Amino acid sequence: MKVTRQKHAKKNMGFYKHNFHFREPFQVLLDGTFCQAALRNKIQIREQLPGYLGGAAQLCTTRCVLKELESLGKALYGAKLIAQRFQVRNCSHHKDLVSGSACLLSMIEEGNPHHYFIATQDQDLANKVKKKAGVPLLFIIQNTMVLDKPSPKSLAFVQKLQTNELVPEHQKQSIVELKEKEGLAKQEGEKRKKRKRAGGPNPLSCLKKKKKKTQEGQEPSAEKKRRRQRKRNRVKAEAVQPVQNNEEE
Fold this sequence. Notes:
The chain is an alpha/beta fold and 249 residues long. Helix content is 49%, strand content 11%. It has helices spanning 2-20, 32-40, 45-53, 63-71, 77-83, 100-107, 123-130, 152-162, 169-182, 220-248, and strands at residues 26-30, 57-62, 87-89, 116-119, 137-141, 144-147. A six-stranded mixed β-sheet has the order 3-2-1-4-5-6, with helices on both faces. Strand 4, helix 7 and strand 5 form a beta-alpha-beta unit. Helix 2 crosses helix 5.
């Protein structure tokens, strides 16, 4: 049973890591009901939860949750002591504190950009969390912590992403910021310059060179004949000159 539960947790964690970019340390927001259930079932949240999620986890809560536990008195005194050990995240309710469930819902608005898990035993809060895409839900059942399977809202959201119909708002903002940082952001209407590709060799340069034509009316063979005739006349003149000199002597 434990192996099967671990396999389901690993599969569900893979879904959130791949589609919603959840990374370690996983940030888990806990309310008073979850702390009370852990105390009653003798669950060591800090020791057991990282092993179940398969990575380091940061347990945190809000001031509204702590104030709510304090107002409930001795009945939830043990849960308050457990919650006080966790990190306190700043919420938007600085002056007028709200209920713990309303505060946790406000922490996952706008697409859950901080990648929070919600750990609660409040069924009403759990149903509202399931209506938001990309928010993992943790609860305790039969003395064990359970990571709920992805909600229909999360599955539909991922399907739209895969068909390129929707891009999360926080991802759009991240893309714009990265472009501005790298200097890639361009003004509207500016056209992108085409880059010239390296072409092949000029086909005309591959042709064989043609021989130059001689002057009009003359052929190469006739010019060669004239040169040979001049050489013969010189040889004859040189041969006749020694004979004349002998006769004079």
